[in-house]
Amino acid sequence: MSLYSFLTNNIIVNNILIALKVDAEKELSAGHWKVFTYNPEKTIQQNAGFSHKEEVEESLKIVKEKLKSTLAAYCRPKASVLDFGCGPGIYMDMLKEQYNVVGVDVSEGMLEHASRLLPTHKFYHGNFLKIPIQETFQAIYSISVLEYVPVSQITRFFEKCAALLEPGGIIFIQYPHALQKLDLYYPDRNYINYSPERITALASKHFNVIENKQSFDGRDTCRYDKTPYPTDSKTFKNGYLLIARKK
Ligand SMILES: C[S@@+](CC[C@H](N)C(=O)[O-])C[C@H]1O[C@@H](n2cnc3c(N)ncnc32)[C@H](O)[C@@H]1O
């Protein structure tokens, strides 16, 4: 980390920005995705931000299977389903035969690739928290995007999901959870490791929480994870999964 980013992105500065809601106004977290360029020399998965290391593949496989079984349990065939932060379209492609999957992403580079892969599908370009979406869905899912939702907007995020869902609709949110006590105080505003306990409390205002657990091993870790997988090489094993149904 450079001295400049240390001085401008630390617990004190971030908590002031959050209190003033400047983190959301300036789109500080989603901002860098706006300038993302798809790299054709990398795989679609690498462009989405994930390596092909065995443990990453292993964890992604679990999330994909869980997404398929959750949608099969709660959604009608061909139901409208929204992919929040669809990226290059990996999950939309996986679900396209079973559901009417619609994508939303702030990154033009990601959407260019996703719409080449899924030319007849509908996409919304923009910040999910800000753009109007004039339709409803039976499910909203999101893989590795919640970390870019600004802290001052996290309540609004759940409100918006609830507003866009049909009665009984579900959310399926995979996110990197707090791995240490420090994460509860937002040391990095560009990548927020939300506390599972806080996510359950916020989601519970609009949803009945079906589960909020470690996505790889199913553990329940409360405020933060006291036994995370080693993070020297970033591992997707450190993820959480919230599944909840609109009240
Ligand atoms: C790590 S990538 C994951 C992409 C995809 N979900 C996947 O797993 O393949 C995060 C994606 O979220 C998008 N994103 C981040 N903040 C967003 C926001 N506020 N509104 C819409 N998209 C957002 C980024 O542009 C990026 O495509």
Protein described:
This protein has 247 residues and is of the alpha/beta class. The chain has a single domain, classed as 3-Layer(aba) Sandwich (Rossmann fold). It has ten helices and seven strands. The chain has a seven-stranded mixed beta sheet, with helices on both faces. Strand 2, helix 8 and strand 3 form a beta-alpha-beta unit. It is globular and about 50 Å long. Bound molecules: S-adenosylmethionine.
- The number of strands is 7
Per CATH, what is the topology? Rossmann fold
Bound ions, cofactors and other small molecules, one mention each = S-adenosylmethionine
What is the radius of gyration?
Answer: 17 Å
CATH architecture: 3-Layer(aba) Sandwich
CATH superfamily: Vaccinia Virus protein VP39
Average residue-wise pLDDT:
93
Order of helices and strands: HHHHHHEHEHEEHEHEE
Number of domains: 1
Strand order of the largest sheet: 3-2-1-4-5-7-6
Major sheet details:
7 strands, mixed
User: Given the structure, what is the number of helices?
Assistant: 10
Oligomer: single chain
Mind telling me the CATH class?
A: Alpha Beta
Percent of residues in beta strands: 15-25%
* Beginning-to-end CA distance, first to last residue: 43 Å
Q: Helical percent range?
A: 25-40%
Q: Spans of 5+ residues with little confidence (pLDDT < 50)?
A: none
**Class by SSE composition:** alpha/beta
